[in-house]
Amino acid sequence: LHFRSGEPVRIGRRERDDFIRFASESASRLLRVAELLLRDRFVAEDAVQTTLLRVFQHWDRAKENPQAYSRTVLLNVCRDQWRRDAFRPRTELSDALEREPERSRSLLEIFEDRAYLDGLLRDLTEQQRAILVLRFYLDLSVAETAELLGLPEGTIKSYTSRALATVRRSLPEQRKERPECSPTNS
Amino acid sequence: MLTDEQLEDLLRFEFRAGGEPDASRVIDAVTREVARDPLHLGIRRAAVSRDEDASSAGSRRRTFVHRWRLALPAGAAIATTSLLAGLGVFSSGPAALSMETVAYRTTGAVTTAASAEIAYAQTVVTNPSGGVAGNYDWWSEEGNGRVEQLSADGSPVTDTSWYDANGTLSGREVDYATRTWHATNGGASRQSPLGDFSDELALGEVIQNQLSSGRSENVQSTTLNGEPVLELSGTVEIYHASATKIGASGSTAASGSSGTAGDSGTGAAAASAPSAASSKAAAAARAVASGATTLTGTTTNWTVWVDPTSYLPVQMVETAADGTTATSSIEWLAPSSTDLGQLVAPIPSGFAEVAAPAGQAGPTGNSGS
Lengths: 186, 369
What we know:
The complex is a heterodimer of chains A (186) and B (369).
Chain A: H1 13-38, H2 41-57, H3 59-62, H4 66-85, H5 93-99, H6 104-121, H7 126-136, H8 142-149, H9 153-170, H10 173-176
Helix pairs in contact in A: 1-2, 1-4, 2-4, 7-9, 8-9
Chain B: H1 4-16, H2 24-36, H3 50-57, H4 72-86, H5 99-114, E1 118-126, E2 132-141, E3 144-150, E4 156-165, E5 168-175, E6 180-185, H6 203-213, E7 215-224, E8 227-240, H7 246-254, H8 267-272, H9 280-290, E9 296-306, E10 313-319, E11 325-333, H10 337-341, E12 352-353
Parallel strand pairs in B: 6-12
Antiparallel strand pairs in B: 1-2, 1-11, 2-3, 3-4, 4-5, 5-6, 7-8, 8-9, 9-10, 10-11
């Protein structure tokens, strides 16, 4: 975009409205994905905000398939965050509570959810975690997941299998034998 | 033992536990960002014909032209105040309007126009003896801007433009004396033509600062270049975070150089950066941060002429205690392709790209021509 040639183009009011509508409809789902991938509500909010603004910057391209475009951007933003996290300590819950005491109740709820999920996913690599979130939260197919992550489908299948095995090992003992916990069987 | 299928269902259940999170804060932030940055990066920077621009730049017409272009949002703001007037909140004729009402309407019109139109000003700075110290053309729209310094005969001296990409300022600087230019990436230097009067680069903010923090003292109906206008006048305190007064630093503005206001990149510059009254706290903070112990205010007289229909300013004059004066003729341009192109400093043919000074590192090989 740096001094790109061509006529200047202003994003029209209708396109801006389209983007706002898309952002409003998609933000919650993107935020949940970011939470699952980044394991921090505040970092996830920043990531989704960055994602949506990048989508807006490229709305002329993104509007063709904004859901797919935003997923790709979010994954890139999360990858950047993972790289940064490698050099920084994670934000502790106490810090978060101190920052926003009025939200402590919901934060505790979030923490409870996160603690259980973290327990399930704690031994996964970031790649495996991303695959499980894409496959089983966004319900993407193997092919879609492979395209999004830039990996062969076979790799996605094998990573999924290994990730599920890891999750299985992390399950609390009482749930390993209780298939009725699954909503499809309840 | 759970089967893979059961395990997948378990994950689907846990991933969705608690429902989708409340993303209202994110939505609010994004909506706000999009609304306040209408150009954003959706604009493709104009590739102005270099030859054409080089020939026209030297003979730029400097006559004052009235161009009333009201954006629909600005019209809506005025409609609101008109409705209040209809309800008896305000009197109907301009002569009956109070200073506060005109200031209020002008602030509203400027606020709306600042995000919907391009503010274009021609500023002439004169020194206390009346000699012309600097001529500037400047364009501003949220996060984007351009300042072109012109010589007395109207030929360009320097031309600087910048745009805000996710909080990082990038742009280019063209030097007509050396026939060179360089790109800036993350270190664009911005210099307000108003120098000691204001370090704001967005014209709308300058006017809003005056109206909101200055003392509004008078309003009257008059004419300007044969056109009916409302004239507002008052005073504003310009704060310096050092003992330097405008009288002493006025020579900076009088020399036609960029002054000290725009360069906040160094502690010394920040220490002497002037600031309007609304930024008093910020100025004090800068003073403390830089170790300065004195915060000095000087009084500047200002007059703004506004269109009685749109309430958009068309001319502004600021006079320092020492007699240094900045006169700005203002137009509000509709964001057409041509006018958007004015936000980018053109590079005349034959100008050589040079390395950016330290702190303004720009991409190499980006000739832009």
